[in-house]
Design a protein that fits this description.
This is ROK family protein. This protein has 296 residues and is of the alpha/beta class. The chain is built from 9 helices and 12 strands. The protein starts with a strand and ends with a helix.
Length: 296
């Protein structure tokens, strides 16, 4: 196994990331390519497999032992539930497709759960009995870690807080109500009213000098923090790690979370930026891949 390696794949909203990892966690080769979501799921997967084969060729001289794939949605063997807005993604058989293409065992997981596994295995949840990994990107979700394992739930949807109801009597109706209010995509869209450029980063930048944007962002983060606090009350974590694009504004986001957690949670958890704040799903896919390697 010392001379072997695994291949990790992370399907994001706009790009796919691939990397070959050896047993020490060293990246031997990597690649990124656009998804081109408007062209459908099949071409995205086909091009990613082509890139994966090329990456395997680039490594050379070592044995490919297994592969891990992280994807938005709830990844089942024969389909993807709660699939992203890519035509045909829900019909994908990711595990079978990659096993047939690469000839090695493959394990798949939801991207945020893969990121939580990365933190539990090699990051800032390692050695923490009960922890949460919070992803704050275009969407929002939690990974629940207990004794080094990531909780999946009865249907694979544990931690999907984007589906939380913001108000009593509300209904999800196939949407993600909380995510549509406080996710990075929503912050970007709603922040246009204050001069934002349609992305969350521009709203965070505006909030440093524009009072209206600052007030909007504070109210939005406070709403998000209430739901994170409720999750913390339910799970009682010792630590929460935070990853995703919004962590680039950790000086704003983390204090907003901590303020609500400190006043609302009986035993407030520590809040830290994730070790793998921006590449958690890819690193988690590597952990999945090593888990797929048959014991020798």
């Amino acid at each position: 196994m010392g001379d072997g390696y695994v291949l990790a794949v992370d399907f994001g909203g706009t790009k796919a990331g691939l990397a070959a990892f050896d047993a020490t966690g060293t990246v031997l080769a990597s690649e990124r390519l656009p998804i081109h979501a408007e062209r459908g799921a099949e071409q995205a997967v086909a091009r990613t497999i082509e890139a994966a084969r090329s990456l395997v060729g680039d490594v050379g001289g070592r044995a490919l032992l297994g592969s891990g794939v992280a994807s938005p949605g709830i990844v089942l063997r024969d389909r993807v539930l709660l699939a992203p807005n890519v035509p045909g993604w829900s019909r994908l058989r990711l595990q079978d497709t990659f096993e047939e293409a690469l000839g090695v065992p493959v394990m798949c997981a939801t991207d945020v759960k893969a990121a939580a596994l990365a933190e539990a295995r090699w990051g800032r949840l390692h050695g923490i009995h009960t922890g949460l990994h919070l992803n704050l990107g275009t969407g929002i979700a939690l990974g629940v870690v207990v004794d080094g394992a990531v909780l999946t739930g009865a249907h694979g949807a544990a931690g999907e807080i984007g589906y939380n109801l913001p108000v009593a009597g509300g209904r999800a109706g196939g949407h993600a109500p909380l995510e549509e209010r406080v996710g990075g995509g929503a912050i970007g869209a709603r922040g246009r009213a204050f001069g934002g450029g349609g992305d969350a980063a521009s709203v965070f930048a505006l909030a440093r000098s524009v009072p209206g944007a600052r007030a909007f962002l504070a109210e939005t983060l406070d709403e998000l923090a209430v739901h994170v606090a409720n999750a913390a009350i339910l799970v009682d974590p010792a630590r929460i790690t935070v990853g995703g694009g919004m962590v680039e504004s950790a000086d704003v986001v983390l204090p907003a979370l901590e303020s609500v957690l400190d006043r609302a949670v009986p035993f407030p958890p520590e809040v830290l930026p994730a070790r793998f704040a921006q590449n958690g799903p890819l690193v988690g896919a590597a952990a999945l891949a090593w888990d797929a390697v048959p014991a020798s």
